[in-house]
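ok trying this again, last paste got cut off
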Amino acid sequence: MSNNQIKIISAQQAQGKNSCKNTKAKNTQEKCNNMDMIINRNKGFTVLFAVIISTLVLALGLGIVAITMKEIKLSGAGRDSELAFYAADSGLECAEYFDIAKAVFATSTSDPATVTCNQIDTTTVTTGDESSATSTFRMYMEYVGAVPTISKPCADVTVSKSGGSTVIDSRGYNTCDPANLRRLERGYSVRY
């Protein structure tokens, strides 16, 4: 091959033209045609492959984000449920203590009693007749100064006395705000 032929082939390759087209041999021409078909058939494969891989990675990422968001909501609901449960338990314990140790709840209609739960005095509301009475009070879990925090947990406690038996019903809430859509209620009821 002369220098001129090498320069022509190099110039054709630099311009992106196939150097096989200048050859006269039949076998070489067939090989060149086969190479052209392989090259033409593979055009765009890399882009298609990259799009498919990107789509798979994006779908996987979105799936992980969806699972994570559900887990966050579930853990928040679990926390709210625990707060309501502990508020109900605290209300029940407070009422039991003041009923058994202090005997402040009336067995018939009487004056309101004062119950000190969570270091705050709470006045009970008592209704009833000669043979039974029901006392109710609300116990807040957190205060700012002397003002209860309505967005924090609380418990509504009802103590019913009738014929020598006592029923304490304590309903705990994760928030005392009745307008809150995430408000949960958990309760205890004890009879003795």
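PB: full thing came through this time. The mean pLDDT is 77.
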